Amino acid sequence: MSAPRQKIRLIVLALLTGAAVQAAEPDMARVSNGIFRPLFRSQTDLKEEPVKSFRLDAVPVTNEKFLEFVRANPRWQRSRVKRIFTDDNYLKHWASDLDPGTNAHPDQPVVWVSWFAAKAFAQWQGKRLPTLAEWEWAAAASPTLADGSRDAAFQRDIFRWYSTPSPVVLPDVASGPSNFWGVRDLHGLVWEWVSDFNSATVTGDARGDTGLDRQLFCGAGAIGARDPGNFPAFMRYGFRSSLKAAYTVHNLGFRCAKDL
Amino acid sequence: MRLAWLFLAFSAVATFGATNEVAEGLPPCCHPLVAQTNYTDQSLFQLESVWTSDTGRHMKLGGLRGRPQIVAMFFASCQFTCPITVSDVKRIESTLPENLRTNTGFLLISFDSGRDTPAVLRDYRAKRELSSQNWTLLRGEPEDVRELAALLGVIYKRDANGNFAHSNIITVLDAEGEIVFQQPGLNLPTDEIISQLETLSLP
């Protein structure tokens, strides 16, 4: 008599707990652990970098969300932000401090944000920026496979995006398909900040000042690459290593991550 | 009546809780503006991150305000470039005229949050004979190191052996913590940095 009742109680408890977890992070997807294989590595770098399971925002941060953030944190408003943390173009497409205006729709990904601003937003939400390894691992998934490198159609779609200039009007978030993990827009919408964007010693532009030299020079770049055919990955590495933390760019946004 | 009292008590607690939260509950990104209006817009001293020195003292970079700083990032077990960078900074120190030397700080910040404990930094100071009046050696949390490196334009990556590949840059901060000059490279002449410091110390 008591056994079935206990079972029901357990089920109810499980449902409630599940609901609570859902409610806590409704917009995040769970990305299971995997192996990130860096495109570039030095002689001492790992060939394979393990990535622990983590949670990742299902879509990039939108203008609407970012507006909430600057409302709650005046020091990150356009006219008040300290210039050490962003360049002069911070949120330049917004109409004013607290009005995104007609050029920035609520559901578009927020762009013209620096790494510092992205990091502060994440912190405010109790989250963090994903690491480069986490981002690349999540982004390697096609709609049907965790390892999308074996999905020819997916690879073609990515190439198409990287070979097309950004549209004048950015699409809203979630306009792309959901990948294996339930994450959208990792390709096809905007570039995204990662927490350790300034770690690409091998493709960095700092030619004279790193201990690693051979692969730094134009032309020799592809020699050290794991997969010279992975052009989009080259572009991401090149783009990231051209960034500085205070830079803002018209097609560079971000999304947040969290430990499990 | 009793309910009213309860309500009063509750709102008192709630109010108290809220004030506390403003002071302590917020992450460093989101402290109110008043807390940091002292520093100039470009000052590194406005960072909220807390660092630990080789003597175990906790401090913010703002604690270094008041004199120009020569800044380099390093890690104690570095076999290749950091010893050269530290020698470069020591060369700057020894080349400076006496009055400038006493008015300049030399700041080394570690990439290696895991291994460079205060004790390790203390040994490093002794081994490299870095004077305690002029030199500050700091370690910090990985995220804070990443942020400072981003501000200094230093690129780095931890490798599989726990060592760090990194760029070599010596930075000159003025007394307010703003970057006034950066010199990438190793074994370079010091005269440019010296003349920067001379300019900074002009009344």
Textual characterization of the structure:
Chain A is an alpha+beta fold. Chain A has one domain (2-259): paralog of FGE (formylglycine-generating enzyme) (Alpha-Beta Complex), CATH 3.90.1580. Helices cover 28% and strands 8% of the residues of chain A. Chain A contains six helices and seven strands; from the N terminus they run αββββααααβαββ. Chain A has a three-stranded antiparallel β-sheet, with no helix packed on it. A two-stranded antiparallel sheet of chain A has the order 2-3. In chain A, α6 (231-241) links the parallel β5 (191-192) and β6 (252-253). The two termini of chain A are 38 Å apart. Mean pLDDT of chain A is 82; it is low at 13-23 and 203-223. With 203 residues, chain B is of the alpha+beta class. Chain B has two domains: 2-31; 44-201, Glutaredoxin (3-Layer(aba) Sandwich). In chain B, 37% of the residues lie in helices and 19% in strands. Chain B has helices spanning 2-25, 82-95, 98-101, 118-128, 142-152, 191-201, and strands at 51-53, 58-59, 69-74, 105-110, 135-139, 156-158, 164-166, 169-173, 179-184. In chain B, the strands form two sheets. In chain B, strands 2-1-5-4-3-8-9 form a seven-stranded mixed β-sheet, sandwiched between helices. In chain B, strands 6-7 form a two-stranded antiparallel sheet. In chain B, a hairpin with a 5-residue loop joins β8 and β9. The radius of gyration of chain B is 21 Å and the shape is globular. Classes of the chains: A alpha+beta (260), B alpha+beta (203). Chains A and B meet through α3 of A and α5 of B.
